[in-house]
Amino acid sequence: MPVSLIVGPPNSGRAGEVISRLRGVADREPVLVVPTGQDAARFERDLCRGGRTSIGITINTFAWLFDDLAERLGIRSGATLSNPERLALIRMAISSTPLRALRRSAAQPGFAPALDALIAELGGALVTPSDLAREAELLEDGRLEGELAALAGAYAALRDRTRRSDAGSLAAAVLRELGSHPDALAGRPLFVYGFDDLTLAQRELLTELSSTTEVTVAVNYEDRLALAARAGLVSQLTEEIGVADELRLPHDDAYSASAILVHLDRNLFNAGASREAPDDGLVLIESAGERGEAEAMAIEIATLLAEGVAPDDILIVLRRPAASGPLVAAVLAEYGIPAALDAAIPLRETGVGRSLLALCRAAGPDGNATDVLA
To answer: Would you say residue 130 has pLDDT above 80?
Structure first.
C-alpha cells in the first residue's frame, strides 16, 4: 500500500487536511495517532465542530496502538508497568548491580529517572541490553557503557520476573509478530500527526503496516532554519519507508489578522528578515515580581473571557511550570479563572499527596498520632 506524506509549515492546514481525509474513509474505521491525549481531545473537538458526528474514527497515541496490536496478535506480555512501578524496579536494579564508574552518580536522586529515560530511548531504538554490552566491549574504554548495559539488563530481568512489560519490550514483541501477521490492523487506514520525530520502533511499525493498509503521515516542515530539525524525519520517511504520494501545503497568511504574528511565523530565526511594524498581536506587559506578572496575566485573560473567548483556547507558557506554575494557578483561581496546570509536581507538595504519605507512615511500624491527624 502507498505511504502518503503531508508536509507544510505551521498554519498551513495540515490538521484540516488530515481531518478531511479521515472523514473520507470513516466507513473503514481509520486510526489517527497523535503524541498526547490532549492532542487527541483537540482533534475530537475539531471533528465534531458544528455538530458533525465522526463515528468509526479512533484517535489515540502510539502507546495505545502498540497495546491494541498486541491484543490483536495474541501477545501475552503482561500489564504495562506504570511510571512509579518502573522507577521502583530501576532503583532495585541500581542497588543490586556492582558499579565503579557510575557509583557516585548512582547515589544521586536524579540518577534513577535519568536511567529510566535512557532505557526508554534504548527500547524505542530497539537496542537490547545485550546489544549495548557488545558495543561497549568494542570501545577502547567502555566501562561506563558496560555498567549502563548491566543496569539495563538487571532492570529487564526484574521486569520479566514480574511478568510485566514496558513500552520497549511491548514494541519489540509486536514487531516480531507483525512480520508474519502484517494485516493485524485489518485494513484500517492509519494517520500519524504532530510528531517532531519518530523512534526506530515507530518507523518499523509504519513500515510493516504500510504493506497491508494506507499510511498517511503529516509533518510540520518547510525548508527554513526554524524547522530544520524536522528535515531528518522527512528524510527517514522518504528513504526508509518510501513515499508514493506527497502533498506540499503552503503557509496560510490569513490564519491571523495580526501582521506581526504572521511575520514572526514566517521569519523566526531568520537573521536577514525585514522589520515589521508592531501591532496588538504581540504585547509586552511589564510588572513587578512574579505575583505581579501572574496578576497581569489574570487581568488580560479575564478580559478575553469577558469578550467570549473559550478558556480552552487560552494558553500560558512558562519556562519552568513546576516552579512557577502553582503561583500562577493560585492567582488565576483568585480571579475566578478556570485553569489546568500541566506540570510535574512532587507528591508531597499537594494536599492529597501529603495526606497519602502521612497515611502510609501511620500504617507503618513507626506511625504515630501526628501522622493520623495529618
So the answer is: yes
